[in-house]
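Input chain follows. Return C-alpha cells only.
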Amino acid sequence: TDGVEECHNQNEAIFGSTRIKNQLKQLIEPTAEDCTAAIKNAINEFSQQVDPHDDITILSIQFSPTQKKLSNPLVISLKNDIKELLKLQYIIQQFSVQHDLEDKIEKTINLVLEELISNIIYHGYTNHESHTLFIKINLDETHIRIEIQDNASAFNPITDAPKIDTNIIDSDREVGGLGIHIIKNMVDELTYLRKDNKNHLTIVKERK
C-alpha cells in the first residue's frame, strides 16, 4: 500500500519508491517471501520504530510461467516500440529450443531481426501513433523462412540502403547502411515487395 512509500523516520524523511526498488535490485533470484522480508526489514531500519501515519501492507507475488509449445509456422505481432525487441528475442529463443535449431542459427535470426525491426521502428514511421508489425517464421527440414510485414513508409533494404564500400576504413565511411550490408551476408536470400501500402520483406536462411 502507499503506507510503504510514505513511511517516515524521526526526521520526517519519506521512505519513497526508490528505496523499494533499490532493496529489490540487491536480491538474487528471490522468492516472494524474500521480497517481502527485504522491504519489511528496510522499513524497520529506516523508520527507527516511528509509528506510521498509514497502514503498511506488503504483498509479493511470484510468477512461474508455463512453457507453451510454439507452432510452426509461427506468427508474432509486435508494436512499434523498441522494448518489443526483448519479447521478440525471448520468443525466438524458445522457438529455437523447441524446434532444435542450433545456437548459431538462433543468434543469426535474432541479430537479423533486431537490425531490421529496429530500423522500421526508428525510421519507418512519420507519426507517434501505435502500429503493429507482423513476423512469420516457417521452418522446414532445410531452411528457415521469415516474413516481415509492416505499414511503415516504403523502404526496400536491398536497393534503398546506402551502398557500402568495404575498401574504405570505418572512420571515413558515411553513417548508415552497414547493418543492412551485414544482414545481406548473413542470410541466403532477401526479397522485398511493396503491396497494399505495406512492406513485405522475406528472409531465407539455410538450417545448418
